Amino acid sequence: MAKIWDRLIKGGFLVDPANGKYGRFDLAIEAGRIAAVAPKLEGEAREVTFTTAHVFPGLVDSHLHLGSIFGSPYGARMAAMAGVTTCLDMAGPFDDLLEHADRTGSGINVASIEGFSPGELFGTLSPSDAQMRDFIRKTLEKGSIGVKLMGGHWPLPLTTSRRMVELCNEAGAYVAWHAGSETAGSNILGMREAVEAVRGLKLHLAHINAYCRGRVRPVLDEVLEAEALLAENPGIWSESYVSPMNGTILTCDAKGDVIDHVTRTCLASFGLEPTRRGIVEAIRRGCLFVVRDTGLVSELTGGDEAVRIWEEAGTATAGSFPVNPALSRFYLAQAKRADGTFLVDALSTDGGCIPRNVTLATGLSLVKFGALTLNEFVLKASLNPARHLRLFDRGQLGVGAAADVTIVDLDRQRATETIVAGHTVMKDGVLLGSGTTFVTTAAGREHLEKLGFGVLETDFSGDEPERIRL
């Protein structure tokens, strides 16, 4: 009797570096997992998809934002539209994600780390070990997988950041750092300082390209130093994004001064003061765009409309400056160690609800240019970040792997279908998925399951998986 699968994807060009598959293959799915892979599969299926497009393991975005404080609660929808099947939200707030997950979820898998603001939490920028341990414990028990140090936006003493990394390592919690402190900014000096502070510890150092904007020295000099720092410190895991736009908070205090340090620096780079007046001038000059909530997704807007949205929000919204040089984005995407592994482990977007989910739209240009092979693109956009999250059944399409798949129109550099656990959550620009499955640790499983969410359990207590060389 012929085998009857749940789903059969026929004729696609499969790119699966983990399993050495590159070419035309059929893919069978059963119970949310890959059941068979072969050049030609015989059998029947309840659903059959014929395609000549490229078939990738589902994209895994290792740095984006889903919290509504960054402009809207619709980041999961926007990620699914861009082909993402699993993502790491970098800052939360996790309670905000939980509040919106049922209504705005798109059916993708979400891990999240909580932004650490000790001044707000404890009234000091130098909390005690007991206070930090309690914060880590409560964060994990809610379902978040760890902690984000927001040094570039909200600087802390270097000793506080170093100690938080140590305590997260001890607790088996994930920890990431947007480099910056009270003594160095979100630039190459901040990166150097962070790397030196955490020697011997595990750390996700966020968006390496953000430290190579030519703020201290010429862009290429900063890129070469960033590459040297990563080569000398293989314990650091990192990503970079390929959008020219950044993302930042545009809130001003009661005196009209800009609060966020990244925003202040961006304004200064355009010769503008870090005030309400500077924000308005930046928008009108076309060097600042404001995130607009459409009710379904969020978009960047400029001009008078952007000023209106920002003012009506009481300045408490997010925006983007075009401050990421093409040179640093290009170099960091393709730079390798002497052993052939990538210096920057993954491509990311720093997007989500910030409208720059361009891993395919821009990242595939690196393939067309010849900076990356298609296998290397999939390694950086899917396999490496999946392994980093210890989701070893994702980022690859071997038999038994989770059926998380992104079908890609390579010519148009966009996702035509996003599939999670065998179910289509986006097809031809139409969202079909709903809800959220959270990636969490053992400490957070019970809480999330009581709230009715699906759960993928992971464990960060061990060493970082060995890097893959193609």
UniProtKB/TrEMBL annotation:
Domain (Amidohydrolase-related) ranges: 55-185, 335-418
- One GO MF term: hydrolase activity, acting on carbon-nitrogen (but not peptide) bonds
Q: Pfam families of this UniProt entry?
A: Amidohydro_1
Say which domain of life the source belongs to: Bacteria
Give the signal sequence positions.
none
Output the PANTHER family linked to this UniProt entry. Answer: ALPHA-D-RIBOSE 1-METHYLPHOSPHONATE 5-TRIPHOSPHATE DIPHOSPHATASE
In Swiss-Prot or TrEMBL terms, this protein is called D-glutamate deacylase
Supply the source organism for this entry: Sutterella megalosphaeroides
